[in-house]
Specification:
By secondary structure, the protein is mostly helical. The protein contains nine helices and no strands.
Length: about 220
């Protein structure tokens, strides 16, 4: 039991770190951001907070809305929100990745960021410790409205882009590339890694606590 959760927690932490690197590459590409990053960058500029703090606020709001709509969440959902926000701020503070000044290098950096984000997402999802906050929100909205997850995602991302743009977030060719390319990259990586997310059940927080408590009780003298 303990070894299993250590392995899964490692996957969660590693996936969050890899995803954070991908997001920082996309931010530094300077050619436009994926929808949620547009909102978070706009919030950071408008409110005078760091990008990571904005990411934590948006993730918490997404989870809170999903809970109000009847969805559950897991330890990984909370960990993903906190880990990614802290790691993104740390990487931006260290300034290891220079900002692209021209379009072609920026597009290459964006493409690298998207691929790294896709790999980080695979690692995070493989931990099976809870769905991501934005994924939980989409599922909750789909169940509440009776519409498809794809339609709900599309509508929400349009609203997110518009609000983020009005707050000062960067919209450009990278926004279009990200909106179209990320889903395709996820599908490609999942196929190459023989990973079927639909067949993997994500564990919610109550189940995690019950399993840990049960393991401790079995191990007690």
């Amino acid at each position: 039991m303990a070894r299993e959760y250590i392995r899964r927690l490692f996957l969660l932490a590693a996936g969050s770190a890899v995803s954070s690197l991908g997001i920082v590459l996309m931010l530094q590409a300077n050619v436009g951001l994926e929808p949620w990053s547009v909102l978070q960058q706009g919030m950071s500029q408008c409110m005078g907070i760091t990008y990571g703090t904005a990411s934590i606020i948006v993730g918490a709001a997404a989870i809170g809305t999903a809970i109000l709509c009847g969805e559950s969440f897991g330890l990984g959902s909370i960990g993903n929100i906190l880990f990614c926000g802290i790691m993104i701020d740390g990487m931006l503070y260290l300034d290891w990745i220079p900002k692209a000044e021209r379009l072609f290098p920026g597009v290459l950096m964006l493409a690298a960021g998207l691929e790294i984000l896709a790999l980080g997402t695979w690692m995070y999802m493989k931990s099976a410790l809870g769905a991501g906050p934005r994924d939980s929100l989409m599922v909750a909205l789909a169940r509440k409205t009776g519409r498809s997850v794809g339609l709900c995602r599309g509508v929400v991302e349009i609203v997110v882009i518009f609000v983020g743009w009005r707050l000062g977030g960067q919209v450009g060719i990278g926004t279009l590339i990200s909106a179209v390319g990320l889903g395709s990259l996820l599908n490609l990586n999942f196929a190459l890694l023989h990973f079927r997310p639909a067949e993997l059940r994500q564990e919610n927080l109550a189940e995690t606590f019950r399993r840990i408590r049960g393991g401790l009780e079995q191990g007690a003298p």
